[in-house]
Each structure stands twice: as structure tokens, then as C-alpha cells.
Amino acid sequence: MSQKKIATNPLKLLVINGSFRESSLSGTFAQLFGRMAQSTFDICHLGVRELNLPNFDYEVAKHPQAQKFRAAIAKADGIILISPEYHGCVSGALKNSLDYIQHELANKPVGVLATAGSAKSGTNTLNTLRTICRSLRSHVLIEQISLSKEELTSDKQLNEKTRERCEGMINEMLDTIYRLNTYSETKETQRFALA
Q1: Which pLDDT score is estimated for 13?
Q2: For residue 7, which of 43, 36, 42, 34 has the smallest C-alpha distance?
Q3: Residue 118: inside a domain, yes or no?
Q4: Considering its fold, how many domains does the chain have in total?
Q5: pLDDT recorded at residue 22
Q6: What is the pLDDT of residue 191?
Q7: Using CA atoms, how far apart are residues 29 and 51, in angstroms rounded to an integer?
Q8: What is the signed CA dihedral for 9, 11, 12, 16, rounded to 10 degrees?
Q9: Cβ(121)–Cβ(148) under 8 Å?
Q10: Which parts of the chain sit beneath pLDDT 70?
Q11: How high is the pLDDT of residue 54?
């Protein structure tokens, strides 16, 4: 991958893994997506397993891990949410983590991805993530991706079609960040491209 950076300070992209499982498909895709985007963004990974937040209640809203989560979102120029689909919905751990959000996602671009048993699944999770993010006043990207093990090659990389869709999401994220004026420098020619 070749990428010319024009920004003095690179744009920050927070990739959130919504699976609590240690070796999950969502975690694998979070890492692969982060690697693809690292020529365009400074990548930060955060997972619900790492956060390990208690069930949300207003009495625990100032939990130290919740403050860490909100601070990471506040610092990011864009967010990627990846959730497994459990019983046709977003993971409970990710939903619980998002319940701790106050205003940090407001006016931030958010990309949504779901992992499921097949690439044709995941629609309910994507729709739920969109609804949650809109409720938190974020700008949900048009591109959304549902992933399964079928999108991995034999050497555990993204297949070409999935890489192209991820590239589209990365470019849309970049365009949306600049359109929302969340970054002060001129866009010029900063574009993501596969090598």
C-alpha cells in the first residue's frame, strides 16, 4: 500500500471490536481492517473484552473503563464498530459499552461492520448499529459491511472483493471527516489506495 500523507497530525481512527471472545471473527476483521487503514489513519484498537464494563447503570457511569472508552472516542476523528451478530442483533457487550456514551459520538463519522455465519447475515446487526449511532447523533457511513469466514482467504487475509469494500469504507470515512470539518487541513489528494 502506498499513501501520501498531507496532514501534520494523522487522522485518528478508532476500531472497536464488539466481541467478548478472545479469538473472535470480529477481532480478526478489526485487525485486518486496521492494517488496511493504517496508511491513511493513525489506528487505535479497543475491544469490549478489554473494557470489561459492568452492566450500565447511571450509578456506574463514571467507571474508570467507561471514562477510558469515552476519551478514546473523543480523541478519534472517526470510529469503526464491528459486532458479531447474536440472535439477530448486536452483541450485548457492545450495546452495553455504547450505553456509557454521552455526547462523544456526536458529529463523528461511524462505519459499521457485522460478522455472522454467512455474508448474507448480519443485516439486523448493521441496522441496529445504525439506529444506536443515529441516536447518539453520529454520522453513519453509507457503506456497511457484513462479513463471514467466507471473506477470508486460506492465509487468513481479506479476499479481493472484501478488500475493495473496505477500501470504499476507508475513503468514505476520510471524505466524511473532511466534509464535517473535523480536521483543519486541506484534503487535497489524500486517498487510500491498494498497492
Answers
A1: 97
A2: 42
A3: yes
A4: 1
A5: 83
A6: 54
A7: 19
A8: -170
A9: yes
A10: 1-8, 119, 181-195
A11: 94
Q: Whose grid coordinates read 448474507?
A: 120
Could you identify the residue written with the cell 476523528? Answer: 77
Angle at 118 between CA 37 and CA 34, to 5 degrees: 10
pLDDT the model gives residue 1: 40
Please report, for the domain that includes residue 66, its CATH number: 3.40.50.360
Residues in the chain: 195
C-alpha cell at 176: 466524511
Residue with cell 453509507: 142
Q: Are 13 and 39 contacting, i.e. CB atoms less than 8 angstroms apart? A: no
Residue 193 has which C-alpha cell?
Answer: 489506495
- What whole-number distance in Å separates Cα of residue 171 and Cα of residue 191? 6
Nearest by Cα to 115 from 101, 107, 126 = 126
pLDDT of residue 192: 54
Task: Report d(CA 79, CA 58) in Å as an integer.
Answer: 24
pTM above 0.90, yes or no: no
CB 86 within 8 A of CB 115: no
Asked if 66 contacts 54 with a C-beta cutoff of 8 angstroms, the reply is: no
Residue 34 maps to a domain: yes
Rounded Cα gap, residues 23 and 191, in angstroms: 31
Report which residue type is found at 28: T
